[in-house]
Amino acid sequence: MDCCALSTNVEPAKINCPTCGEKGKSVPLITLKSLLIASSLETIKPDNTYAFCPNSYCNTVYFSCTHSQKFEEDTLKVPVFQKNLSMDVPVCYCFDWTRDRLVQAVSDNQDPINHIKGHVQSNRCGCEVNNPQGACCLGNVNVFVRSLN
User: Fold this and answer.
1) Using CB atoms within 10 A of its CB, is residue 139 exposed (0-12), middle (13-18) or buried (19+)?
2) How many domains in the chain?
3) What is the pLDDT of residues 52-85, one digit of tens each?
4) Cβ neighbours of residue 96 under 8 Å, at least 6 residues apart?
């Protein structure tokens, strides 16, 4: 089953980020395995549960639920939408919809949300391995597009 079929939200974790205190969101281990650089990947503990910190002001991206590990954006292969305000950072990682591309599409009266939904419905998304949140990014796309109006 694909990641976007169930929900556009990530389940809240039962613990808070050790850096900022914000409630973390559970993230599948496959996400860390896909997105951490090799030196960080070598340090994960597969028996641990990991969470994503959505706070844009916090340097921590992932943390273990035992607080024994933290990973910051520089330990990932990709920039993190929530942590990096650059216009060339993906909002939709599977289909490379950056902030810049979304702004351009909206200004050209295109509908990027339906474009992405079409790919999702065709079972082409892989958010659990492409999106640092480890879950469907349509929620982020919707919020960003609405902020343009």
Assistant:
1) middle
2) 2
3) 999 999 999 999 988 789 999 999 999 999 999 9
4) 90
Amino acid identity, position 141? V
User: Do 101 and 59 belong together in one domain?
Assistant: no
Domain that holds residue 17: 10-77
Show which of 27, 53, 77 is a domain's final residue: 77
- The answer to whether residues 103 and 61 belong to one domain is no
61: closest CA among 13, 91, 19, 95? 19
The model's pLDDT over 21-64, given as tens digits with 9 standing for 90+, comes to 999 999 999 999 999 999 999 999 999 999 999 999 999 999 99
Q: Which residues contact 33 (CB under 8 A, 6 or more apart)?
A: 41, 44
Query: Both 49 and 95 in a single domain?
Result: no
